[in-house]
Amino acid sequence: xxxxxxxxxxxxxxxxxxxxxxxxxxxRASAHTIIAYAIDLAHFCRFLSEHLGGAVSLDHLKKLEPRxxxxxxxxxxxxxxxxxxxRALSTVKSFFRWLEKQGIIDNAAIFQLRxxxxxxxLPRALAEAxxxxxxxxxxxQHDEAWLNKRDLALLVxxxxxxxxxxxxxxxxxxxxxxxxxxxxxxxxxxxADTLTIIGKGNKQRMVPVLPLVKDAIAEYAAACPYPxxxxxxxxxxxxxxxxxxxIFQLQLRKLRAAIGLPESVTPHAFRHSFATHLLSAGGxxxxxxxxxxxxxxxxxxxxxxxxxxxxxxxxxxxxxxx
Length: 322
Known about the structure:
A hairpin with a 5-residue loop joins strand 1 and strand 2. The protein is globular. By secondary structure, it is mainly α. The chain has 16 helices and 2 strands.
């Protein structure tokens, strides 16, 4: 069922479209980010339409008071988590800031409000034995051998390089230099042990690729029945198109049921496991921050709270009174 048209005036509709274009071409936001922002702003406008009693105009936005925006935030508390509402408020602030810079309207009320407090949850990592069992089992779920090799390659890539599922599925065949060794120069071959990853905010980072990961990807590529071109997606679905993340998430749900893993085991859990297991092995936070592509070290520091076993071992080994 299609939603009714957004209850906004034509000038406001044009301003919203221009803001999305600015996000796309100036801020270079990802398509997923722009869609999420558009949904947040549309929710805000629909609430205001009911709250104010009619189509929302730029003049309405100019005259909004903090109590109006607090009413919107309160309405979200029923159906949305605090993190989602915090993002929505950030979206609306971004739109108002853009309107102000464009000289369209100016309203300081929105900037007087603080984001809801978000309870910071610790990343849920797998135990090393669980991760090993998952890697061994995921290559047994399909009837077609190449699909098993694909799922194995994708899982060991996420776990072995600490990638987000979106980062892994955005890779193209040409990004894996070791698959094209015959065509490469000596200089290019020297870089064949790394991947260039485009992360959040289109930020690039280099990650080393373990031989196990390279071999798994090479075996999958060799078994894949569809031909690759340099610009082809690296991971393909059963019909030869780019693999939908929902398909891999389904395979992980089957994997959880098969070997008794908790529901917290998602593709992102293997990224968490990558960081936690590196920290357990003595990796330093700065290096892990670079590998994960975290903008702030404080984000990476969450893993110090997870790795209690390693910290306790270091304490009992080094402390003179232990």
